[in-house]
Design brief:
about 25% helix, eight-stranded mixed beta sheet, alpha+beta, seven-stranded mixed beta sheet
Length: about 850
């Protein structure tokens, strides 16, 4: 086997069997079935009465019912979504309410559904109740009301006040386009409807302004929504402008060496850009656009121009203070997606629509040379408020749109609709970097422990990341800080920095408070600024010395200072564009993985995660996941680690594809391929190190196709189209045994709910499969002896379940998906040369500097780069 060339293994068919669902044992089956049928028929009568009050052109061919589950006994959702019925949405069980499901039932299917319920009173030939998996766990059936369609954590708003509503339609419910019906009804009732609907995944989303009381009539039409949510509009999300000061701009202008228009570029999605700014104009090439009708690309608020300065220069302060030429590696683009508010008489535009339109606008361009690669940077989130505290991890229209865009879904913009459907194209994937969200207006008492001490981590841990930072396919950036300078003036005598160097910025949100996250965010952190604490305990949250310098949109001011996760996000975009310029053969998912793989935790981050407040050490494993990765991601990457290599710390990158699913005899869908990579270990050097501790770091990244409807999270209702996992051969396990183990067990991996420990024969992982398999980027560190690692020379990448498999989509089965696999080997001994023997095995000339290597083995790109 050629080193780092993947071999393909086809898994064995999935064995039959299984424990089966947990069903309620009904003593009075006849009474139970009769009560359910009575509820169904009552719902039908009420719906028929409502339908008769509607114009014939709007009358539906069915109605929605709410089915409640018995406590602690989940409904069999896939059984509901069959036999002509359509599962619209599902709410999980909580402390206050049992699970429920909303189902659309055509009028001509009521009788057959009732018959299936009645069949529960009869026994099968085996003596068990018929239709038990469908009926046993149902508790009640009644007609769905508007409040049952509401999907937000907050209570349903007052129904007598006019407001904007976000309506999620399932096109399967009716052959009639629900948006066409909605517009017709809105015309009759004088409702305001959004100019464009969004088609993403299997949902069509539109927005309407009316009262809740008026909105209830939709339930009696063929525009009955499957879900109702609160919209996220693009107006009013921009950050407040910061302080300013004029500095040495003219000197820096003379020293800048911009790149050409075809070099990689960072595309800023924000409030616009100051196109004539002397520091930005040479890199912009007139690529400034607006995705807002009637709006120019000009930046009236300043946030977009602030982000542009950091995205172009990265460390802007170093560029200002340097003496020699500043050679840039990438250029700029800007698309305005935020303005100063809603214009009377027009419908507000959702963030999802505006973002998709902005991506399409940038890719169409101005007719001039397009950049060879592009990083989309969006330092904007939906601000939490009114009892909210960030997202709960569930996909939103905005986050699902970003996932579809990142996966390479084509954007089709029409007069009344934006389509984000169709199979994702791995060759068209996009790198999108977003901010984790900021803590705004934090009061000192919110940062205090019960003993009264200031603890900014306490507030950050309670402040969940904001929409759309929980999107699976994006790189989410939080903020750390190394800024701790106190102004040397009498006014600030006795002040101190709130956070010690290397810790989490007090502005940054985390995912610590997400109890059941689908993803773990942020992915990385970068400089976001600090705060000052006065002698009396009050907190000053803005000062230039504790913020990041950047460009100002006012030509009379030129420079300003900014902070928080916005600043961190723009700097991350600069690093990503630098990596694209350095390694032009890397795909967007690989660049995303690269920034995570080359991030490091500071000592302060590790200490804060591994120790209790009492100072007693905690064990790692799951605690690392909760206290470190959910705060800091994988730490802070640097341009030096991206560009440079060390002999005792070598990173190898492979880009490959795998076919997750195939159709077998009988129409069943099974896992199609596993990829095996034989690692080019320097065995002699590792065995010489014997019991010396070495680290193996693995990062796997790919893009999923989203399925954003809230119908549950497993099987055909999974959010992700597929999952990919990695596993390493055990030190005492033969290669054949490793292959057999994967082939026998890979079929059982479904949506991350299987037994991931079964794939590991030793317990050396820092995070472990249980936690690392969230989202679409998986990272972990194996730590053990060099001698033990020498015998673990095979790494597998294998598919997991997802809605592609469960839905048996003929247009998705058999499709290859791309993945990036990064593996680093590091020893503590700086005199141990790992690079040379690995490079020799791969045929990479060792006389060339490692950072310049970009070789190909049998068409598979192989990068020999750097340590972490």
């Amino acid at each position: 086997m050629v080193p780092w060339r993947a071999s393909t293994l086809t898994p064995r068919p999935e064995p039959p069997g299984g424990s089966g669902p947990d069903l309620v044992q009904r003593e009075d089956r006849r009474g139970h079935a009769a009560a359910l049928v009575d509820g169904l028929e009552t719902a039908e009568r009420e719906s028929v009465q409502l339908v008769q009050e509607m114009p014939e052109t709007l009358q539906p061919d069915g109605f929605a019912v709410r089915i409640e589950a018995a406590r602690d006994h989940p409904l069999m959702l896939e059984r509901l979504d069959s036999a002509g019925l359509t599962l619209m949405s599902s709410h999980p069980q909580t402390e206050d309410a049992q699970q429920d499901a909303l189902v659309w039932i055509p009028f001509d299917k009521v009788s057959s559904f009732a018959q299936r319920i009645t069949a529960f009173t009869e026994d099968t030939d085996g003596g068990n109740p018929q239709q038990a998996t469908l009926v046993a766990n149902m508790e009640k059936i009644h007609r769905a009301l508007l409040e049952n369609l509401w999907q937000e954590r907050q209570e349903l708003p007052s129904l007598d006040e006019e407001r904007w509503w976000e309506l999620w339609f399932d096109p399967r419910i009716s052959p009639t386009d629900p948006v066409v019906t909605l517009r017709a009804l809105a015309g009759e009732r004088q409702w305001q409807v959004s100019d464009r609907a969004i088609h993403v995944g299997e949902r069509v989303v539109a927005h309407v302004a009316t009262t809740g009381d008026e909105l209830t009539v939709l339930l009696a039409t063929n525009a009955c929504p499957a879900e109702i949510r609160r919209p996220t509009f693009a107006e009013g999300l921009y950050a407040v402008d910061r302080a300013f000061r004029v500095d040495l701009v003219e000197d820096l202008v003379q020293r800048i060496k911009p790149v050409g228009p075809q070099a990689p570029a960072v595309c800023i999605l924000d409030t616009g850009i100051a196109q004539e700014h002397a520091l930005l104009k040479p890199s912009l090439y007139e690529r400034a656009y607006s995705a807002l009708p009637g709006s120019t690309p000009a930046d009236r608020h300043g946030h977009g121009t602030q982000m542009a300065g950091l995205a172009l220069f990265g460390d802007f302060t170093s560029a200002l203070e340097s003496q020699g030429p500043v050679v840039l590696s990438h250029g700029l683009e800007s698309v305005k997606i935020l303005d100063d508010g809603h214009r009377p008489g027009t419908s507000p535009r959702t963030c999802a629509e505006t973002t998709a339109n902005a991506v399409a606008t940038a890719e169409v361009g101005n007719g001039g040379p397009a950049p060879s690669a592009r990083v989309f940077s969006m330092a904007i989130t939906r601000q939490s408020g009114d009892g909210e505290n960030g997202v709960d991890g569930t996909a939103t229209l905005w986050s699902a749109t970003l996932d579809a865009l990142a996966a390479g879904t084509d954007v089709t913009v029409r007069d009344d609709r934006i389509d984000l459907i169709g199979a994702p194209d791995p060759q068209a994937s996009r790198l999108i970097i977003v901010s984790a969200g900021n803590i705004r207006g934090a009061l000192p008492q919110q940062m205090r422990t019960e003993e009264g001490a200031l603890d900014p981590l306490l507030l950050s841990d309670l402040s969940r990341i904001e929409e759309p930072a929980h999107a699976h396919n994006v790189l989410t950036v939080g903020a750390c800080t190394h800024l701790d300078t106190v102004p040397d003036t009498p006014l600030f005598h006795g002040y101190r920095p709130l956070v010690a160097p290397g810790g989490l910025s007090p502005f940054s949100r985390t995912s610590v408070a997400l109890t059941n996250p689908a993803v773990t965010k942020p992915d990385i952190v970068l400089e976001g600024g600090n705060m000052l604490v006065a002698p009396d305990g009050s907190v000053l949250d803005e000062h230039e010395l504790l913020s990041v310098a950047t460009t100002h949109h006012d030509p009379a001011r030129q420079l300003t200072w900014t902070n928080a996760t916005s600043a961190a996000t723009a700097q991350a975009a600069a690093l990503a564009a630098t990596a694209m310029s350095t390694y032009p053969g890397l795909r967007p998912e690989t660049i995303r993985a690269l920034l995570v793989h080359e991030a490091q935790w500071t000592p302060a981050m590790v200490e804060q995660g591994l120790f209790k407040k009492t100072g007693t050490p905690k064990l790692a494993k799951g605690e690392v996941m909760r206290q470190v990765i959910r705060r800091y991601g994988w730490g802070m990457p640097t341009a030096e680690r991206i560009r440079n290599s060390a002999s005792n710390a070598v990173t190898m990158i492979i880009q490959n594809t795998v076919v997750p699913f195939k159709r077998v005899k009988g129409g069943q869908v099974r896992l199609a391929e596993l990829k095996l990579h034989e690692l080019p270990w320097p065995l002699e050097q590792l065995r010489d190190l014997a019991e010396t501790t070495v680290d193996l770091r693995v990062t796997l990244a790919y893009m999923i196709e989203p399925n954003p409807g809230r119908r549950g999270m497993l099987g055909r209702y999974s959010y992700a189209s597929h999952g990919l996992r990695f596993a390493i051969k055990g030190p005492t396990e033969s290669g054949d045994a490793f292959r057999r183990r994967l082939a026998e067990q890979a079929e059982h991996e479904s949506d991350g709910v299987g037994n991931p420990k079964a794939f590991e024969s030793h317990n050396r992982w820092l995070v472990g499969p249980r936690f690392r398999n969230l989202g679409s980027l998986h990272a972990d560190i194996w730590r053990g002896s060099a001698a033990e690692l020498a015998d673990c020379g095979m790494l597998a990448v294998y598919p997991g379940g997802g809605w592609w498999k469960a839905n048996k989509r003929s247009d998705r089965i058999g499709l290859p998906v791309s993945y990036a696999l990064l593996v680093s080997l590091r020893t503590p001994d700086v005199t141990t040369d790992l690079y040379t023997p690995i490079a020799t095995q791969l045929g990479v000339p060792v006389e060339v500097a490692p950072a310049a290597q970009a070789e190909t083995i049998d068409g598979i790109p192989v990068q020999m780069e750097f340590g972490w």
